[in-house]
């Protein structure tokens, strides 16, 4: 008698289905469908998979959103940690410009995060946790600069890191949202943000 035991999906097949669902959701969000109005049935149908297949890869719609947001944060983090103070504000401005472009690419996902975070604690906490690696990286850089005597000893590294990371992230998100898709001011914005970081923390005048 032949076995009817269901074989687990191959890793490559599983990754392919997940990528397909994530890409489809991103497309639907870019086309203007609010995340709260985007049902699992429609996502599955547009992605060409069964509803049951969707649930074998994602716990629910929130899990899907967090996967998209996680990709966005990891992409931005990879760019952010590449900066070193030795490159000065010019290098920092270039990093910010690249991060702005990531936020533009994922703007519909960010909109969905803000939309859902208003009532979903899990999403709010996920986004906050995602900023911690940025803060830790800034903390490490500032401590190194302080120990080398290149920034004042009275700089409160922990508070400074939170202010520049959380404030910078909100400023980037606001710039992208307010621009209405116009990228003409991105370089000017990135430069101003870099100078604020540079002179406010990394190159603060001594008192």
Mean pLDDT across residues? 92
Using only C-alpha atoms, the radius of gyration works out to 21 Å
Question: How many separate domains make up the residues?
Answer: 2
N-to-C CA distance: 85 Å
- CATH topology category name of the largest domain: Tetracycline Repressor, domain 2
Explain the overall architecture.
The protein is elongated, with a radius of gyration of 21 Å. The protein has 9 helices and no strands. By secondary structure, it is mainly alpha-helical. It starts with 10 loop residues before the first helix and ends in a 5-residue tail after the last helix.
Which terms summarize this structure?
207 residues; 9 helices; disordered N terminus; 2 domains; Tetracycline Repressor, domain 2; Arc Repressor Mutant, subunit A; mainly alpha
Brief account:
Mean pLDDT is 92; it is low at 1-7. Helix content is 73%, strand content 0%.
List the helices and strands and how they pair.
Elements lengths: L10 H20 L9 H8 L3 H7 L3 H20 L7 H18 L1 H11 L3 H27 L9 H23 L6 H17 L5
């Amino acid at each position: 008698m032949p076995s009817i035991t269901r074989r687990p999906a191959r890793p490559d097949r599983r990754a392919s289905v997940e990528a397909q669902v994530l890409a489809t959701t991103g497309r639907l969000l870019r086309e203007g469908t609010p995340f709260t109005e985007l049902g699992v049935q429609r996502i599955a149908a547009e992605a060409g998979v069964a509803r049951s297949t969707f649930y074998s890869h994602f716990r629910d719609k929130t899990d899907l959103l967090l996967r998209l947001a996680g990709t966005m944060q990891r992409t931005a983090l990879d760019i952010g940690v590449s900066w070193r103070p030795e490159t000065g504000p010019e290098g920092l401005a270039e990093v910010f410009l690249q991060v702005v472009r990531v936020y533009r690419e994922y703007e519909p996902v960010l909109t969905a995060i803000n939309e859902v975070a208003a009532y979903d604690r899990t999403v709010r906490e996920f986004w906050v946790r995602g900023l911690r690696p940025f803060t830790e990286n800034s903390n490490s850089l500032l401590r190194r600069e302080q120990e080398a005597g290149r920034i004042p000893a009275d700089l409160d590294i922990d508070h400074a890191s939170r202010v520049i990371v959380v404030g910078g992230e909100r400023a980037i998100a606001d710039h992208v949202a307010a621009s209405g898709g116009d990228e003409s001011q991105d370089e000017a914005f990135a430069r101003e943000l870099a100078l604020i970081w540079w002179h406010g923390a990394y190159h603060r005048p001594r008192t």
